[in-house]
Design goal:
By secondary structure, the chain is an alpha+beta fold. The protein has one domain. Helices cover 24% and strands 28% of the residues. It has three helices and five strands; from the N terminus they run E-H-E-H-H-E-E-E. The radius of gyration is 13 Å and the shape is elongated.
Length: 96
């Protein structure tokens, strides 16, 4: 189960443009479904991030992350290890 690691805003500067770093991770990503993403990430971590981003837990209470078509989900490699991330407002949230 992958746990939340970091977002691109707080990413260590020396790991952004180095080989296998953040930029390569984004450039080589494969789009996946939310369902696939949820199979691979820690449920507590994603629930906390959804709440922190202002999403509702249930669609009858407001917009859920699952219903936000602006959010994308990806699988990629970071330093040759498979990672999963979602992109919200052009910010990548990475799970390793």
């Amino acid at each position: 189960m992958k746990t939340f690691y970091n977002d691109c805003v707080s990413w260590p500067k020396n790991d952004v443009d180095c080989p296998g770093g953040l930029s390569d991770m984004v450039d080589n990503a494969t789009d996946i479904t939310r369902k696939t993403f949820l199979k691979h990430v820690n449920k507590t971590d994603i629930t906390g991030l959804e709440a922190a981003l202002g999403y509702s837990k249930h669609y009858k209470q407001g917009l859920t992350m699952g219903n936000d078509w602006h959010v994308s989900y990806c699988r990629s490699k970071l330093h040759n290890k498979i990672v999963y991330y979602f992109c919200h407002s052009a910010i990548e949230y990475v799970f390793i």
